[in-house]
Structure formats: structure tokens, C-alpha cells
Amino acid sequence: MTETTSLPAAVHGNPAKLPAHEIVYQKLRAQILFGELVPGQAVTIQGLVETLEAGMTPVREAIRRLISDGALMFQGNRRVSVPLLGAEDLEELIFARKTIECELARRATIQISAADIEELAAIDNALDKAIATGDVAGYLVQNYSFHTALYSHANAPILSDIADRLWLRFGPSLRVVSGRLGTQSFPDRHKDILDALRRQDPEMAALAMERDVFEGMEHVVQGLRVAN
Amino acid sequence: MTETTSLPAAVHGNPAKLPAHEIVYQKLRAQILFGELVPGQAVTIQGLVETLEAGMTPVREAIRRLISDGALMFQGNRRVSVPLLGAEDLEELIFARKTIECELARRATIQISAADIEELAAIDNALDKAIATGDVAGYLVQNYSFHTALYSHANAPILSDIADRLWLRFGPSLRVVSGRLGTQSFPDRHKDILDALRRQDPEMAALAMERDVFEGMEHVVQGLRVAN
DNA sequence: GGCACCAGAATATGATCAAATTCTCAGGTG
DNA sequence: CACCTGAGAATTTGATCATATTCTGGTGCC
Q1: Which residues are within 7 Å of strand C by their Cβ atom?
Q2: Could you give the C-alpha distances from B124 to A26, B29, B150, B184, in angstroms and in order?
Q3: What is the DSSP letter of B11?
Q4: Class of domain A18-81
Q5: How far is CA A217 from CA A129, A174, A226, in A?
Q6: What band does B101 get if pLDDT is binned at 50, 70 and 90?
Q7: What CATH number was assigned to the domain covering residues B87-227?
Q8: Does A12 contact strand D, using a CB cutoff of 7 Å?
Q9: Architecture (CATH level 2) of domain B11-81
Q10: Distance between CA atoms of B223 and B228, rounded to whole angstroms?
């Protein structure tokens, strides 16, 4: 009667298998990355308990993790909110992204297979489609997917982890800017990156990545400057 | 009669002011950084509940934070342990430390005051003393203090945060190596760093930092290679 | 050697206590 | 007379704990 270890359960979706705090973490993380939460917005434990229909302890743990990630901010009193970035923060993020993500691009270049490159190209096509149709949410998801998928081939878990955290920091601001300025205006150097991957040229990949990061972040800087 | 905002309360020891989960986090963090926990060692919630005399919820939250920091490792099943690093991990850490901490050194150089430089020099003196007397724990504490104090003057909270996390990752391994090889053998480029600070030469500071980081980490690599 | 059982640890809930913010209303002032 | 100010109550939210439930890993029996 114990079909606990039955095979079909492991096929794909195994919702009961992951603990509640993990599910809450993933959901909240997605909300932050893809912009359902606005910078400056207050995040309450009890609010999430109702919204996500989870218990208090899992929500609490998820929030602690996200604070540690830099995705949420502990406001000294007991309040938690989505951080809103200043120009200095963005400047630091630009430096960190450039060094870390360029290195990841280099490492991925010399390890990735041809098949995996085509998977990246497919993601980039979906990205282009999102840009063309002005689908902001799709743009954010596909853009993140492209970078994450690339880094997964760098065989560098620690650096990938750092990069992932950086994305959590500027995710909400990215959403604000692209919601305001539209998707068209964003630069996209992914074609250059794909070229570099196909040529197996690490330095070219790093250079293309640097331009993608710099132009994207500079765009956020401009967008937030308008907003003040 | 309301002395809620009275000065004496803020004088110094305000043990009731910080929440329990914060205290647990700090204690556990220190144990990891300064080596009371060995790489590979299992960490149990109930064990910490007894050891640290805290409730279950605060311990739980502290552990989640430290997992997110990379200081602890979630082993897939419900076990948590102190990670033990492989050669690839150290290689990544070397790259990350070099880029991040050198930049922090650069930024600190152009902002730090003469008085603060002397405070750093005082820490370095305490470090020398610990090395001379073979005080491993003191060495670890003072070495960490030196770097942290330096970075606090870089006016770069995000980069400092990243650097801090990196220290949590290799802290346990550093302890193992220095316990085995003694404190004498460790290189110390702090004098060069202090020189660069006094001359206000950012590139010289970055270079000295790079050597300090590289030699220190290389030493860990060698030490762990012996241990296998 | 494999399978069932058992002990122990982790997960998750809800209740309770404490703190902080907000709201309200009274008093005073321009 | 209207508006600003501030003390205090009320409500909202966070922190902590005790407890029930579920799961993992080991042990012993067949």
C-alpha cells in the first residue's frame, strides 16, 4: 500500500515532495524577480501567509533566506520591504555583474555543447518574440532564463550563485524600468554572445557579456533617474 | 515617567534588544567562521536548541540564513552540514575574492582617514602577536577583523556583503589548515596593504590585496591537498 | 540479503506574548 | 473658528514556543 517510492511520482511534477518553505521561497523569489513586488513595497509575514496559503513558519524561513539573498531588506524595526536601489547601489552591481558574469561566460564558452547552444538560441528567440510583442513579463522571464541557462554550463556553482543573487537585487528595479520604458528600448547583446559560443571564443563571449550587462544596467540607471 | 528613549538604555549592553534568531545567527556564524565546526560535520536543529539554549524557530531561521550564505549546506534529505571544499571550489573562491576584495581595497584607499588606517595597523599588530604565539583562534579572528574593517571604509555595502559571504564559505577549511600547519606558515601581506593606504595608492593596495588573497588561498589549497 | 519495524529528527501548525504603527481625540494656538 | 500637535488606546504585525505530524535512516528478523 505504500506507493511512496513509486516511479510515476518522480516523473516530473512532485509538488508534495518539496517542503513548504521551499515552495514559498520559490514563489516569493519569482514574484521579486519578475516584478510582482514593487521596490519600497512592504512585505508582511501574515500577508504572505494569506496570499500563499502557507503556515507562518515556512513563510518566515523563506523571508529570512531572501533577506540573506539581498532580495528583501530588513528595515531595522521589524519590518521587511523590497529594497529600492540608489545610483551607488547600481554602480556596485554593475561592477559585480561585469566581473562575475563575464567570467561565467568565459567558462561556459569552453564547456558548452553545440546542442546546449541551440537551446540558448531557442530561449533567445522567445525573448525576441516577447520584445516584439511588448510582453514585459515574458521579457523578464526569458532574459533571466538565458543568463541562468548559460551559467549552468560554466561548471562554477559558487560564481553562479553569486550571479543569481545579484539578479535578485535589481530584479524589481528592472521591472519598474521596463514597465515604464517598454521592452523595445532594451539592448540585447545575446546574438553576439551566441556567436562567441559557436566560435568557442571565450574572450569574445566575455566582451559581449560585458556589453550586455553594461547596456542593460545603464538603461536601468537612466530609467530610475527619470523616476527619481 | 516614560524613559523609553532614555540614554542609559543605549549605553552598551542591551541583550534584550536583538531578537533571538539574530543572536543565534551571530553565534552560529562565529562558530563557523572561527572554526568550532569542522567541515563535513552534521548540524542538527535540536542539537543547536540545546547548545545555544534557544527555541526551535530561531534556530531554524538562523540555519536557513546560513545555508543561503553558503556557510552551511543542505544535503537534499533533511540533513544540514558544514560544507567541505574541493579544489574546484577553492579555485572559484580565489577568483571571486581577488576581484571583489581588490576592488574593495581600491575603494577603501581613496576614502579611508589617517586615524582609521592606524586602527587597521593596531589590528594587524594583534594579528602579528597571535601568529607569534601560535594562537590559532586569535589569528583567525584578527585576520578576519582586518579585512572586514578595511572593507567597511570602502563605502560599498553590496560588494562588502559578497566578500563577507565568501569568508563564510572557506572559514572552516581555513581553520583546519591553520590548525594543522600552524600560524607561522601563513603569509601576511597586510604591511604592504597598510603602506599602500598611507600612500593613497589604490592600485598598489589592490596589488597587495591580490597577493594576500592569493597566497592565503593557495596555502589552503596546499593544506587541504595534504589532508585529502 | 531484503523487507518491515522503530526510534529520532525535521517539518509544519496554531496559540500566545510583545512590540510598533496608526488612529483618534482632546487641548492648545494662530 | 480651524488647524496643528501630541498622548494614549486600539489594531496590526512580528517573535517565540509547545505540540502534532511526517519523513528518514538504521536495526533486526525472516
Answers
A1: A 19-21, 54-58, 77-79; B 16, 44-47, 56-57, 60, 78-80
A2: 43, 23, 11, 15
A3: S
A4: mainly alpha
A5: 21, 9, 14
A6: very high
A7: 1.20.120.530
A8: no
A9: Orthogonal Bundle (1.10)
A10: 9
3-class SS of residue B3: coil
Residue ranges of the domains in chain B? 11-81, 87-227
Residue A32 cell numbers, joined: 521579486
The predicted structure's pLDDT at residue A200: 94
Q: CA triplet B64, B69, B71: central angle to 5 degrees?
A: 90
CA-CA-CA-CA torsion sign (A128, A129, A134, A135): negative
C-alpha dihedral, A157 to B63 to B23 to B134, nearest 10°: -60
Cα B206 from Cα B105, distance rounded (Å): 6
User: CA-CA distance, B105 to B95, in Å (whole number)?
Assistant: 15
Handedness of CA B58, B62, B63, B67 (dihedral sign): positive
Residue B42, helix vs strand vs coil: strand
Residue A140 is placed in which grid cell? 523578464
**pLDDT tens, position by position, A2-33:** 333 223 333 333 344 678 888 899 999 999 98
B57 touches chain A (CB under 8 A): yes
